[in-house]
Design goal:
With 379 residues, the chain is of the alpha/beta class. The protein contains 8 helices and 19 strands. The chain has a 6-stranded parallel β-sheet with strand order 8-7-4-3-2-18, covered by helices on one side. A 3-stranded parallel β-sheet has the order 11-16-17. α5 runs parallel beside α6.
């Protein structure tokens, strides 16, 4: 997947802090997160791709985030397969992220930085050593070796080379995948992140029908966070086209997330709208149960964000498929709109989601990014 950054940035005034009344919010966290605190964070969320890894002017980004009152910085740290040196470049990236996270938390100790464990692993991971503490956490004998790509992917060949040659979807039921996911989670927490997005979790659990393996992966991360995270807690989410991961009434995730799922307005070229029931949109479908923090809900709160997955065969044209918006992914479609329409559309989206599903919140875009050569999410 190749990310192409636009030189233009959305203004964070579009967070609607200036157009909607600001209510008192609570951001106190220590070992668990109440529903009130969760909703406080989701209501002040922004996509901040690469925030912790050196892209752009960090000082200006930090000024913007603190001035606008952003409290949840989504996708601030992650590795997408072979991109930017691949998995073996992670140690250097993590060192940089830790320094930047420390600066952010001096400016705002309440800001929650999100890292990502995505639905991809590449052969480059074989150049990265497995630390002894990963073996120990999973109760396995310590070995001196590197990660093993072939032992992470589906044995049947399912989703093999899904993201290009030598880049596949990992199988969460495999022991090597659990080593890898724990390594990422602990490394991200040590860098100062307090939230982890687990990507397209349902793409990785085709050999995990009862969710036992996902439960183990998430429990390992939570156990480490309880002892070592900044506020002894990690906030976990994933994209859930099925409405959520629930095991015998127990929600495995702290909140759900999904793309906005935009519908083209046929008689208004280049315009788009939101609609309950359009494709696999999550509105009115977020599953409930008992949260990892112990409180119960009928529907778990969720975020919707601008999806980024490339362009169709005919960008700019209508009718290219149900996940394309005039031939583009959601964030590219949005970035190409006139400024006035962008402002109006964000206000429309925020109000529409709050009116049609009060458990939903829109994650605001910070920097426009176009993604070329990637497969569409949840297709």
């Amino acid at each position: 997947m190749r990310l192409v950054r636009s030189p233009t940035r959305t203004l964070c005034g579009w967070l609607l802090l200036f157009s909607l009344p600001v209510l008192a919010r609570d951001y106190r966290v220590d070992g668990s997160m109440s529903e009130e605190v969760l909703r406080s964070y989701l209501s002040r969320s922004m996509t901040t791709m690469y925030l912790l890894t050196g892209h752009g002017d960090f000082d200006d980004n930090l000024r913007m985030l603190t001035n606008c009152g952003v409290k949840f910085a989504g996708r601030a740290l992650y590795q997408w397969g072979r991109e930017e040196g691949g998995e073996s470049a992670l140690p250097k990236k993590l060192d940089l992220a830790k320094k930047k996270a420390a600066r952010i938390h001096v400016a705002d100790p309440e800001m929650n930085l999100q890292a990502c464990v995505f639905e991809i692993v590449s052969r480059e991971v074989e150049n990265l050593a497995v630390p002894s503490w990963a073996f120990e956490a999973l109760g396995r004998q310590v070995e001196k070796r590197n990660f093993r790509y072939e032992e992470m992917i589906y044995p049947s060949g399912r989703f093999s080379n899904q993201w290009g040659r030598g880049a596949s979807v990992p199988d969460v039921s495999r022991g090597e995948t659990k080593l890898w996911f724990y390594f990422l989670a602990r490394s991200y927490l040590d860098a100062g992140c307090e939230a982890i997005h687990y990507g397209q979790a349902e793409l990785m659990n085709r050999n995990d029908p009862k969710l036992d393996h996902w439960s183990e992966v998430l429990s390992l991360a939570r156990r480490y966070a309880a002892r070592n995270a900044r506020r002894h807690f990690v906030l976990c989410d994933a994209h859930v086209p099925g409405g959520g991961l629930v095991q015998e009434g127990q929600l495995l995730l702290d909140f759900h997330s999904f793309p906005l799922r935009l519908e083209e307005v046929a008689d208004k070229p280049k315009e788009a709208q939101l609609r309950v029931g359009y494709t696999d949109a999550i509105y009115e479908r977020s599953r409930g149960g008992t949260t990892p923090s112990g409180w119960r809900c009928e529907h778990l709160p969720f975020l919707v964000e601008f999806g980024n997955y490339g362009r169709s065969r005919m960008p700019g044209e209508a009718g290219m498929g149900k996940f394309w918006v005039w031939g583009w992914d959601e964030i590219t479609w949005f970035s190409q709109q006139p400024e006035k329409y962008r402002n109006e559309w964000l206000r429309y989206a925020w109000r529409w989601v709050r009116e049609h599903d009060p458990d939903g919140y829109v994650q605001m875009p910070e920097t426009w990014r176009c993604v070329e050569g990637a497969r569409a999410e949840h297709r």
